[in-house]
Amino acid sequence: MVQQSEMFAALADPTRLRVVELLGEGPQRAGELASRAGVSAPVMSRHLRQLLQAGLVSDTRDPDDARARIFTLRPELITSLQAWIDQVQAHWDEQLGSFKTHVEEKRRTR
Question: Is the dihedral of CA 33, 76, 50, 59 positive or negative?
């Protein structure tokens, strides 16, 4: 199981974040991603390797060209990140609500 910290570390880089956004549009080849992200092929290769290791993307071989790999976003991991963020948000909403209630009670008792 990939750790959330690995996923967040992978997404911390602006280029990798851009790659995830681009893959949100649909599967793409590394060359397409490099061109659209404005980086060289070797740089894109390093970014894709980190995204693969973090489990955020997967790759398959193009049936018409065995040398070409097609990269795809793994939505189930993006969904798990969203679920974690939602939990954190709910916790903070609860904490802030409690703090607000506390402050309002203090104001009334003055």
Answer: negative
Residue 44 exposure: Cα atoms within 13 Å on the Cβ side? 20
pTM comes to 0.70
Other beta carbons less than 10 A from residue 5's beta carbon: 9
CA angle 61, 7, 17 (to 5 degrees): 75
Written as tens digits, the pLDDT of the chain (110 aa) is: 557 788 888 888 999 999 999 999 999 999 999 999 999 999 999 999 999 999 899 999 877 877 789 999 998 877 777 777 787 788 787 788 878 887 888 788 87
The CA-based diameter of the chain, rounded to the nearest angstrom, is 77
Q: For domain 4-108, is the CATH number 3.40.50.360?
A: no
Describe the chain by its helix, strand, coil percentages, rounded to 5. 65, 15, 20
